[in-house]
Amino acid sequence: MRWWKSKSGQIQKYTEQSDKKQESPAPFTGDFTFDLELVRQEIGHNSDVHFREFNIGRMSIRAALIFVDGLSDIDLIDQHIIKSLMSDFPQEYKKRKIFIKDSTLKEFVKNHILSISKVKEVHNTKDLALEVLTGSTALLIDGSVGVLILGITKGKTRNIEEPVSEALVRGPRIGFTEVLSDNTALLRRHGQNENLSLTKFQVGERAKKELIIAYIKDIADPGLVKEVK
């Protein structure tokens, strides 16, 4: 297939298709660096999307977690995923040489390492973006064609109440809080669209404040977005 002659060419081709609004989901290849770059091109422009790279089991097997700040539970990521995956695997599993095949490693991680209940698998960037931008966490493992999706959505940090000065007769009775990450998470939850883009920047000279520009990528005028930035 001519799509796979050049990895750099493949990324460029998918980008060109996106510009023409004829994008096809980019499938994962098992090449960690290449697949991670595909994900960065798909959702990496969002300031609330985070990438955490590390090695699995002290065995120089590269992996990465992709999650959204405010939607994914950071405590669960730290304690039940990163800590478990970075710990050394039991010797009995190493003696069996189960890591010869990368697909076996993925199944081993899924069935023996991850202590969470909701785990599924996706095979292209489109499906990954839909899952991550709605609160799930993606686990990308070097050599694995499929990416594991971990259901560790963050719970509420405080009750979101109806704005006092902007009461509505119809529609959701919720308002923004004083915490920026909670507000971006609120936008993600109620505007579930993979084209919702959030760009963070700072204003002010002495007391710097963080602001977020939120827009729908395929609807907003790029010139207007650039002018606002």
TrEMBL record:
The keyword Membrane applies. InterPro entries: Spore_Ger, UPF0353/GerABKA_families. One of its GO terms (cellular component) is membrane. One of its GO terms (biological process) is spore germination. Residues 1-26 are annotated as: Disordered. Belongs to the GerABKA family. This is Spore gernimation protein. It comes from Aneurinibacillus migulanus.
